[in-house]
Specification:
9 strands; alpha/beta; seven-stranded mixed beta sheet; two-stranded antiparallel sheet; 16% strand
Amino acid sequence: MKKRKSTFGKKVKHLAEYAAFLCIVGCFRLVPESQIENVSGFLARLIFDRLKFRRSTALANVKIAFPDKSAEEQEKIARGSYQHFALMILEIVKSIGWKRERIKTIVEVPDIDRVRQIGAKDSGAIIMTGHFGNWEVGVMRMTHNLWHEPFAIQQRQSNPYVDRSIRRFRERLGAGLIYSRGAMRQGLAELKRGHALALLSDQDGGKRGVFVPFFGKMASTPIGSALLHLRSGKPIYFFCCVRIAPLKYRIFLEEIHVDSEGGVNEENLTKVTKESIAKLEKYVRKYPSQYLWMHKRWKTPYPGETGND
């Protein structure tokens, strides 16, 4: 009886959360495109100045990454990051009603023939990215006649109703989804079938990650993209979609070249991961306010160092 009550209570909680989620999405969809920058600015100030959500973490991370910048410059980057992600959420919600032709006109793809060849049918490739730029809009563009049936690895949301909503949205874009649990086996199978496989690879890797430098400080980093590359033999690329103007983006795609003779071992996993994160750092340095600084990137301490609590 107690278990039934617990299950019922959890379902009610999930439904309430889902109702709130739909309400927020509905309100955001009503915001005119001409006002999304103003609204995102208001939300960023609310979260950064009033709610102070992870503000100390963001400021500490920016200080680690850019120690030579003044406190004012560091705060400007952190504030910009909050506005960027508030704007990104609004853009994603607004994109629900965008036509495919609209996506093509707002996302620049330099060297488009090479990009199309990478994602061609039966080619197979690992696409590594991070919490940087607007990866959702980037994936939207890639599914529009550039990549053949790409797959993305993502974590399952704790709320099943929200998870189903997000899954339907991404599948409607033309991307298949693989949940992180069991992702290695299914991911290898899709790569073998010739599909492109994208995954975020810059969160804290915990005890299972490998330590590689990120802005000069060792950070535990997930090995998923490196392991997929080494096991499948498929090429690995760093991908990002950066905002270059309001509702205007540019895709960057660079192959990661690493001598990994010897196959899957700790040394090769570290080398591939290190080079992947170096590519990410290169672009974050160019567009520092488009990175998710509020994330606890250095949470797992490197032996002899203090972590990012």
